[in-house]
Amino acid sequence: MNEENPKKLDNENLLSRTRVLVQDEKNYTLAVLHHLREIESRELYLPRGYPSLFAFCVEFLGYEEGQAYRRIAAMRLLKELPELEKKVEQGAVSLTTLGKVHSFLREERKLKGSESQFKTKAEKQELVERCAGKSKRETEQLLNSYFPGKVKPDSERPLSAEQVELRVTLDFQLVKKLHRLRSLWSHKVPNANYNELLNEMADQLLKKVDPEWIDKNNSQKGEPKIGHEKSGQGRVSGEANTRPPVSRFPAKVNSVSALQPRYISSVLRREVWRRDQGQCAYRDPVTGKRCASKYWVQIDHIRPVSRGGPSTAENLRLLCSSHNQWKGSRMDLG
User: Fold this and answer.
1) Mapping DSSP to helix (H, G, I), strand (E, B) and coil, where does residue 20 land?
2) Domains of the chain: which residue ranges?
3) For residue 229, which of 217, 243, 215 has the smallest C-alpha distance?
4) Which of 53, 125, 128, 256 is surrounded by the fewest CB atoms within 10 Å?
C-alpha cells in the first residue's frame, strides 16, 4: 500500500486524510466480522486443525487473545442483531462495547433463565443503544447495575515467568473444605498457604484421573510384566513363562470385544492416551498441523464401529469434542 507520507501534508489535509483512514478502518473491521461469521458458519477452522474459532483467530490470524475475543463476541451479537451494523460502521458502538454486552447477555440468560430481562431482539438492541457512546468503565457500570452485588469473573494475570495471579471468588462451603484439608495435611505441608494447598490437591487428584500419572506410578511400583511368573519369594523371576497358562474354566467362544465392539478396556484407554499424549490427534491433511486441544478429549474409532472398525490401538485415537462432532456430522452427510 502506497500511503502518502503524513509529514508532507499540511494541517487541513492531514486531518481530513486521517478521518478517511479511520472510516476505512471501521469498514474493514465490519468486513472482518462478516468473514469471521462465514468462517464459523462453514466451520473452516476445524479441517485446518483448530478446535475453535477463538484458537483459529489467535494462532492462524495472529490476533491477541483480547482482540480475538472482542471480534468473535461482536460478530455473534451482530449475527443476532444485524441492525447494529450501521452503528459499528459509524463508530457509534465499539467492538469492546459489543463484546461486553454479548458477555453480559449470555451470563444474564444463564443466571436468570426464563426470568431474563432481555428476551426479545428489541430489548437487546435497546440495551446496546444505552451503552452506545459510553466509555469502557461507564459501560461496565451500566451493565453491573442490573446485577447488584454481582461476583466478578475469574481472572488470571501473569506476574513473572514462574508466577500467575489468580483472582477467584469462592463460596463459604468451599473455603470450609479448604480449611479442613489444611488441617488434615498439616503434618505433610505445615502452615500451607493457598498455593501450596491447591498444589497438593492437584497432585492428589491427578494421581487418580490422569493416565500419565497412573502409568508413572505403576512403573515406579515395578509391577510384574505379563508373561513372567513369580518366584517362591514373591519376586519376579527373570525367566519368561513360555508355557501358556492353563485355565480352570472353559474358553469363551466370543471375547468381550467381540460381543461388545464398542468396549474399550481401561488398559487400552491409557495406552491410547499415552501415545497421543492426552491431546487431540486430528491433523490438517493439507498442512499436517495437529490440533493442540487437550480439553474434553474423547476416544474415537478412526474406522467407525458401524463400518466394522475394531477397538484396537491402531484404530483408536484421541479427538477433542469439536473434531469428534465434526467428524460425526461429515459421516452423516455421507
Assistant:
1) helix
2) 6-144, 169-209, 257-332
3) 243
4) 256
CATH level 3 topology of 257-332: DNA Binding (I), subunit A (1.10.30)
12-21: average pLDDT: 89
Task: Give every CB contact of residue 165 below 8 A, 6+ residues apart in sequence.
Answer: 156, 157, 158, 159
For residue 243, what is its C-alpha cell? Answer: 508355557
| Cell numbers representing residue 252 in the block | 469363551
Q: Give me the residue label for grid cell 495472529.
A: 62
Q: Is it the case that residue 334 has pLDDT exceeding 70?
A: no
CA pair distance 84, 73, nearest whole angstrom: 13
Joined grid coordinates for residue 302: 478412526
SS3 51: coil
**Whole-prediction pTM:** 0.70
Do the beta carbons of residue 167 and residue 159 sit within 8 Å?
no
Residue 84: which of 203, 73, 309, 168 has the closest Cα? 73
Residue type, 178: L
How far does the chain reach from its first CA to its final CA, in angstroms? 45
- pLDDT digits over 163-203, tens only? 999 998 888 899 999 998 888 888 888 888 999 999 999 99
CA gap 19, 23 in Å, rounded: 6
Cα 250 to Cα 30: distance, rounded to the nearest angstrom? 72
Pair 96, 71: CB distance under 8 Å: no
The CA distance from 140 to 128, in Å, is: 12
**Ordered alpha helix ranges (H), 43-164:** 53-55, 65-80, 85-90, 95-112, 121-131, 136-144
Read off φ and ψ for residue 298, nearest 5 degrees: -135, 150
In whole angstroms, how far apart are CA 233 and each of 230, 236, 242? 8, 9, 20
